[in-house]
Design a protein that fits this description.
The longest helix has 33 residues. The strands form three sheets. Strands 5, 6, 7, 8 and 9 form a five-stranded antiparallel beta sheet that branches. This protein has 14 helices and ten strands. Helix 2 runs antiparallel to helix 4 and helix 11 packs across helix 14.
């Protein structure tokens, strides 16, 4: 029985070692003259602000400083100054290529030197068991008359003219109003506006509000009674009755454009000078978008299917790093909309941890697909030459109207351009192999 338990324990240990074979712990010691130099530099840094009775600020001798503050006060800065050098030494001596930012701990730290313990994670072994002959077909797309009609109505809407109108507000008009809301006779926050352009029928206001503006004239004042929805975002107004004092300052009507010569001149689309040619242009644009969407779905289906046939043990650190990247991208997207992450968390009643949990699944998939594609790139011997990468960099710089050096700085260098091209070539190869 004891032998059986010992054997099981040994098997578990071997399995754990096998699973973690791409996680390496490297110890680097910095001592001797290099440590003494770091300690000297640390002292000079601390000496500037050191205050000891009997000495001017910045003039305390080292032996007095160490007696007063302790030699240990110099250790951390000395160690920090050697961290990058120690890391480079760890990489150089181990010949390892990390796939994520390495972790680091202090193994020992004293007057004789510092020992850093680097946790270096290398690329895990990837086995792609099947990636050919999956018979995945792209979706065929078509454009319907209803889709063309719908988009044509949007084009006409964008070029609609707005004009002042005499008479009463009708559905579809724009009423320029002053308003103030009251609950139980008391004005509430966020319930007041001046010269607000309200399109009647847009359903942007509380249910029942817009309908009661219909029939009012310019200069007319009226009290409008409404009930806030039960799911309204302001807690103190949910399901409550309210009264709005409303004044109509102006009434405007939307004048639909005719598809005449002036309209097509305003449109400014080359070769479009009639309803027929406009409809053809719209159809072409819709089809191009549908083709692009279908292509993306097609690639996603291939990658998803291939990923079902992949054996790989992805270190959590790789997923965590990708999660952080996605979080930063999400934050940038929010900032473009004028929303900070703190405001987003308040509005959605979530936390950073909640958001990271949501992003982790996408992060895992991104890492899996990247490792999978890199392995297929190797299996299929797909290469991108330096000349191809340079040409792509020039094309991208021209496309984004940037200098090539500026583009490379933002893109992460020519190696990233080359890597991106490799991935795209590999995806094209996968499409060919799975027709």
């Amino acid at each position: 029985m004891a032998k059986a338990l010992e054997k099981e324990k040994q098997q578990k240990t071997e399995t754990k070692k096998e699973k973690n074979k791409n996680i390496h712990e490297i110890v680097i010691k910095m001592d001797g003259e290099r440590w003494e130099k770091a300690m000297d530099d640390s002292f000079k840094k601390h000496q500037k602000d050191a205050k000891v009775d009997g000495f001017r600020k910045g003039k305390v001798p080292r032996n007095i400083y160490e007696k007063h503050f302790g030699k240990e006060s110099l250790f951390i800065d000395a160690a920090d100054s050697l961290l990058q050098e120690a890391y480079e030494k760890a990489i150089d001596e181990s010949k390892l290529i990390p796939v994520v930012q390495p972790g680091v701990d202090l193994k020992s730290l004293d007057e004789n030197g510092v020992e850093f313990l680097f946790k270096i994670i290398t690329k895990p072994e990837v086995k792609v068991k099947k990636y050919k002959g999956l018979s995945i077909k792209p979706e065929k797309v078509k454009v319907t008359k209803e889709e063309i009609d719908h988009e044509l109505s949007h084009v006409l809407e964008r070029y609609t003219e707005i004009a002042l109108k005499e008479g009463k507000v009708e559905n579809g008009d724009i009423a320029v109003i002053d308003f103030e809301g009251f609950k139980d006779g008391v004005a509430f926050d966020g319930g007041k506006g001046e010269n607000y352009s309200l399109e009647i029928g847009s359903n942007t206001f509380i249910p029942g509000f817009e309908e009661q503006v219909i029939g009012m004239k310019s200069g007319e004042e009226k009290e409008i009674k409404v009930t806030f929805p039960d799911d309204y975002n302001a807690e103190d107004l949910k399901g409550c009755d309210a009264t709005f004092k409303v004044k109509v300052n102006e009434v405007k009507e939307k004048i639909k454009r005719e598809m005449d010569e002036d309209f097509f001149l305003d449109l400014g689309m080359e070769g479009v000078n009639s309803e027929e040619s406009l409809r053809k242009e719209i159809e072409s644009n819709i089809k191009a978008q549908k083709d692009a969407d279908a292509e993306n779905k097609y690639i996603d289906k291939i990658l998803e299917e291939v990923s079902k046939n992949v054996d790989v043990d992805i270190p959590q650190e790789m997923v965590d790093e990708e999660t952080e990247r996605l979080l930063k991208r999400f934050e940038q997207q929010m900032q473009m909309q004028g929303i900070s992450l703190d405001v987003y968390y308040q509005f959605t009643q979530t936390t950073e941890e909640n958001l990271k949990e949501q992003l982790e699944k996408e992060a895992y998939q991104n890492v899996l697909y990247r490792l999978m594609l890199e392995e297929i790139t190797s299996l299929e011997k797909i290469e991108v030459t330096a000349e191809e990468a340079e040409e792509e960099a020039l094309n991208l710089a021209k496309k984004y109207q940037m200098e090539k050096e500026q583009l490379l700085e933002q893109f992460g260098g020519i190696d990233m351009i080359q890597y991106d091209l490799e991935m795209r070539k590999t995806i094209e190869t996968l499409k060919e192999l799975n027709k």
